[in-house]
Design brief:
CATH superfamily: Cytidine Deaminase, domain 2
CATH architecture: 3-Layer(aba) Sandwich
Distance between the termini: 30 Å
Function: Catalyzes the deamination of adenosine to inosine at the wobble position 34 of tRNA(Arg2).
Pfam family, one: MafB19-deam
Largest sheet: 5 strands, mixed
Mean pLDDT: 96
Keywords: Hydrolase, Metal-binding, tRNA processing, Zinc
Protein name: tRNA-specific adenosine deaminase
Family: Belongs to the cytidine and deoxycytidylate deaminase family. ADAT2 subfamily.
Helix content: 25-40%
Bound molecules: zinc ion
Number of strands: 5
Shape: globular
Length: 156
């Protein structure tokens, strides 16, 4: 999550809302459930929605696309997405489509959160893939970064 926070700060320097994400890959042997290799960061991204004027320019969305490119696979099994803000419906949808193992996020998002706050996409039994969501990791730090950003912006 520290690395995701670094990405959020880099995004802020570009004039973006400070949100960052990394994808960690740890392949697991399906038979023994033991790790086959050390976990490694395979993707990192910050929010780029303003810079690229792309409605899909969310940090975790970009990080998942990078992770797929790195693994040469659309399926992100063995991957955990770390993101500073609770994912929206689109990003939670991509996590479902990519079959991620887990998402760890910092601050909850009362206006758009889809992994526990407004929706629980990760544990919707109607969908063909469920994954673990772990909220609140360095949550105060992630929330404070956003709060300070919007307070500064309002003063301008
Ligand atoms: Zn999103």
């Amino acid at each position: 999550m520290r690395l995701a926070i670094d990405e959020a700060r880099r995004a802020e320097e570009l004039g973006e809302v400070p949100i960052g994400a990394v994808v960690v890959y740890e392949p697991i042997d399906p038979a023994t459930r033991r790790p086959l290799a050390e976990p490694q960061v395979i993707a990192r991204a910050g929010n780029l929605r303003e810079t690229t004027q792309d409605p899909a320019g969310h940090a975790e969305f970009l990080a998942m696309k990078q992770a797929s490119a790195a693994l040469g696979a659309w399926r992100l099994a063995g991957c955990t997405v770390y993101v500073t803000l609770e994912p929206c419906i689109m990003c939670a949808g991509l996590m479902h489509q990519a079959r991620v193992d887990r998402c760890v996020y910092g601050a909850p998002d009362p206006k758009a959160g889809a992994l526990g706050t407004l929706y629980r996409i990760n544990e919707d039994e109607r969908l063909n893939h469920n994954f673990t969501a772990t909220p609140g990791v360095l949550g105060n730090e992630c929330a404070e970064m956003l709060r300070a950003f919007f307070a500064r912006r309002r003063r301008k």
